[in-house]
Amino acid sequence: MTEQMMDAPYRPHGLTNGEQGVLGQPLPRIEGAAKVTGQATYAYEGTPAGIAYAGIVGAPRGSGTIERIDASAAEALPGVIAVIHGDPRMPAGEANSRAMPSFASDTVFHYGQPVAIVVAENQAVAREAAALVVVEMTPGQDRFDPRAEPIDTAPKIGFLPPIAKGDLDAALAEAAVVFDQTYTTPIHFPAAMEPHASTAWWEDDKLIVRSSNQVIGAARGTIAQALGIDKDKVRVLAPYVGGGFGGKTGVGPEVILAAIAAEKIGRPVKVALPRRQTAYLVHHRSDTVQHIKIGCDENGIISAFAHLSVAAQHDDGEFLEPVPFGTLPLYRGAVRHFKTDLVRVDLPATGAVRAPGEAVGTFAVECAMDELAEQLGLDPIELRKRNEPDTDPLSGKPFSTRRMIDCYDDGATRFGWNPQPPASVREGEWLIGTGMAAALRGNFTVNAEAIVRLEADGRAIVETDMTDIGTGTYTILAQTVAEMLGLPIADVEVRIGDTDLPPSAGSGGSFGAGSACSAAVLACEDILTELARRINASPDELRLKDGCVRVAGRETALADLVRGEPIVARAKSGPGAESKRTSQASHGAQFCEVAVNAVTGEVRVRRMIGVYDVGRVLNRKTAANQLIGGMVWGIAYALSEDGIVDTRTGHFVNPDFGEYHVAVNADVPQIEVHFIEEVDTSANPAGAKGVGELGISGAGAAVANAIYNATGVRVRDFPVTLDKLLAGLPPV
Amino acid sequence: MKFTINGRSYEAEADIRTSVLDLLREHVGLTGSKKGCDHGQCGACTVLINGRRVNSCLTLAVMHQDDEITTIEGLGTPDDLHPLQAAFVAHDGYQCGYCTPGQICSAVGMLDEAKKGWPSHVSADLEHSDLSDAEISERMSGNICRCAAYPNIVDAIREVAGRAPAGRDVAGADA
Question: Where is the 2Fe-2S ferredoxin-type domain (chain B) (predicted)?
C-alpha cells in the first residue's frame, strides 16, 4: 500500500494532465436513476427474511432516577416477542466518536432517553407495546432552562481550547471605536429526511447492521466496543444514507438496541425512530449566547476581537459547540480572545450539526461586522476588505489558498451590490433590503484509504468505506478515477458504504470528498506507474483518454495492457507537515435580498447569490447543490428553525416538521452559486477543500443583515420572526 | 386484503392498522415510497391513488382495496425513466434521494391538478393558472427536502411542464 501524507504541497500529474476532461464537470449523479425510481435502498429497506420490528421506550421525565419498569402489559400483548430492559450493554445515549455510550444506569440525562426496547411481529404492535411499558421515576435536578443555570467558565469538554492573546480590556480601552453586542441562537435540529434507522442480524457470532450513518468505519469500532465484541465481528452497511447533517456521525442508541434485540430473539430486527423521537435520540446543536467585542481605529482597522459564548450540554456529553471556530482566522486584530463556556442541562445531547461553530458563530460575527460598518459609516464589504488578514491572524501561518477578496468582488458584481440606507426602499407594502456576509469553514484532511482495480476489460473499480449522504460521493469518486485513468465515467464502478472495504474518512466535517478522492488519486498513480512500466515509459509521459494510453504517438488500449490479471493498487492519504504548516479553509461571500411586509412583518427572501472558494471543484453540479442546501439552511435558521424546550418537563414543544419549521419549497428563491476555483495543493492530492458546510456559514447573517437594511430593525435574538420586527417597523 | 398497485394485483395479510405506506414497504416489498415522518408533514411517502397525490402514511390500507395505487416504481424504471424522473436526474433535483420518490409522485399529481385548472394559493388569476415558478414552489411545498435542492426541483418540474425559466417568488411584485 502506498502511503502519502501531506508533508509538502502535492499536485498529481494525472490530474494536472488529465485528458479525459471529466473531473469538475457538472455530470449527473451516477446513482441518480436508482434514486428517482425508488431502487436505492436505505437502512430500513432490503429487509432479511424473518424480520421483527422494534420500538424504543423513552424516559417519561427529563431528569431523575428510574425506580421501576413494568413491562407486563406489553409482554401480554399478542404479537409481542420480547421486551428488553436492564441489559448492561444498553446505551443510555448516543455513542459519538468521542464519547463511548454510557451503559444502562438508573440515571436519566434527558427526556426520551431509551430505557427499554420492545420487539414485535409488526410495527403497529411494536408501537402499541412501547406505549404500554410503565416507567416510574423519581424527579431529579430538572435543569431544563439553559439560561437559568450556572455557567461553568472552565469546562473540561470540547475540542477548541480557550484562546486569550493579548490584553483585551486594555486594547478596547485604547481603541477609537468599540463595538459590544450580544447575540443568541436557538436549538437547531439536523432533521434529516430519513429518520435514524438500523436493521441488525447475526450470522453466527458476526453482527451485520444496515444503518443510516455518515461514518461507518468509526461506527464499526463503536458498535463493537458497546457490545463487547471484536471489531472484526461487526460489518456496517450504508449504501444510501437519507441525509445526515452531522446527526448521523455517531452511533445512535437504535443501532445497539437493534443488535441486542436481534441477539436475544435470534432473528433480524429493525428499528426506525419515529420522527418525534429523533429530537430526543439524535443530538442537536446547542442554543448559544454570543458576546462580540471589537476594538478598531477610525478607519475600521481592527485591533482587538473577542467572541465569547455559552453553549449547553448534558452531564454525559463531551461535545461543546466550538462557537468561534470560524472567527479564529476571519479578520485582523492582534488581540484575540475566543472562549466558549458551558451550561450543564438535563436535555438531549448537543453535538455536531452542519458546520459546528461556523453555522452559529457567523450569525454573531457577520451581523456584528454589519453593525460596525454602519457605526463607522463604511460599506460592509469595505470594512471586511480592510480587515482581510495576510496570514492567519492567530497562528501566523500562511494561508494555503484564500480567495476571500475575490469572492467579495465577484459576488458584489453579480449581485449588483449597491446598498441603500436602512428602511429606505419600498415597493408598496414591502420593505426591500440587501445584506451580505463572509463565509468561512475550516478545512480538514483525514486519513483515507482506497483500492482501485483496473480490470481485464479495461474498466475500473474503486472501493472505499465512504458514504454518500447526498453529497455526491459516488459520482466524484467515479470522476476522479475516470480522470486519472482516462476512462469514460461509465467505465468506473464505485463501491462504498460497506465496512469490508478499505477504511475511509466517512462523511463529516466536510472532509469526506477531499480525503476519499485523494486516496483514489494515489491508488490510480500506482496503477499509472505499473502501466508505464509495461510500456517502458515514465508515468509522466502517459496520456490517457477513453480507455487508451498514448505515449509518443503510439496508442494502446488499457485492456491490452492489463493482460488478464487486474492491476490492483491500494493507497492511503492523510494529513502531514504541510497540513500543520498552513492555515486552511474554504471561503465565500453571501449576498441576499429580502422583502419584509410592512404590515405583517413577514420576511420573504427574494434572491440569494453565493461565491465560493473551495479549492478544486470535483463536480460543479453536486458542489453547487450542496452549497445551495447550506444557503437554504441559513435562510431557515435565520427565519424559522427554533427548537423550543418546555422548561417544566424537559421535552421539546416542537419535535416534528409540523412545528419545527425547516424551509419548504415556497420559502426558497432561485439561488445562484459561483466558484472562484483555485486548486489547493496544500490541502490534499485532490486539491479540494470542504463544500458541504460552507454554504450555511454566513448565510443566516446575510439574511438578517438584509432584514435590517429593509426595516431598520436589528434583531440579535435568532430566529428573526415577525413578532421581533413588528414593533420597530415604519408606519404603513 | 387485495390491492392493485402499479397495475398488478397483490394480496396481503396485514394488521388492520396498517397504512398504505407500511403496506407498500413492509408487505409487498415496494420500498421506493419513503417514511420521513409518518404523520403527513413531510411528503416523502407521496403516492398516487386513482391519479391523485396522497400522503400514504395518513390513510389505511384497508380503505383502498378497490383503488388504483401508483408508486414511484410504477412510473418508470432505470432503463425507462418517466420524464419527471429523467428531469430530476438532469437537474440534480435531489441530494440524498430520500424525499425524491415522494417529490416525483407529487409532481406528477401536481401537474395534473394544474392541467385541470386547479388554482394554487399564489395563483394571480384563480381561473387561469400559469404554473409560474412561484406556483410550482407553492404547489410542491408539501414535500420537504432537507437537503434543500428546491431550486433544482423547480427547474426539473418547469422543464417537464414546458415552461420557460422565469423570475420566481418576487414578493411584492403585485404591489
Answer: 1-75
